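Memo to structure team: turn this sequence into structure tokens by end of day. - J.P.
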Amino acid sequence: MSIETKIKAFDRDTLFDLGGLSPEEQSAALAEFARQEIAAAAAQNKAALGHEVDYDTFVDGTKSSRLESVSPTGTIVAEFDLGADLVQWVWDEIQKHSPVLTGAFKRSQRLFADGVEIESPADIPAGVEEIVILSVAPYARKIEGNNRRSPESSQAPDGVYEAVAAMAAARYGNQANIRFTFREPMGGATELEQWARAHSSREDGSAKQRRQYAKDIRQPAVVISFR
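Reply from structure team:
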């Protein structure tokens, strides 16, 4: 997969005064600075993730490893494949922080890429813009809690999704927009949908039923938007 974070390798306006250098010397100077910046970014990614992160380099808009071929007024961009690691980390942390009684809550976790349910972070397609992780268990709101009611599980005293979203934003906030919110799972035919329909049917009047259903079907979620 290729969810990517683009890192500009240099800024010609702040690099140094290139006056007096030949075009070939300018290209060589820009390429060397780009190598240093890319190496620094690669080291930062390795320190954060614990392993090397693959990347591609693009010289003047064309995929190439020959940085010295950059034109004197051109650009070098490194694209690091960070999306899969980010989503896998969030997914693992949600599993880790999920309270366990029968294991049903862990099994209720769902992963959506641009509104389409997928099996795992490894299945995220290229170019995806938004990832949503949530539970289809009807009691997910109780486990999460809110500003009027504390989380109900002693195994997750701070809830699950909001806590993980905060940790992920602190760790990966320079790579993606990560936030806690409420979302409706796509696709239907879940335990949550069956419960929401039954629960809303207790309300008198179709308008009240629709409002109750809309409320019940929205679940705590971590949303990851790639920049």
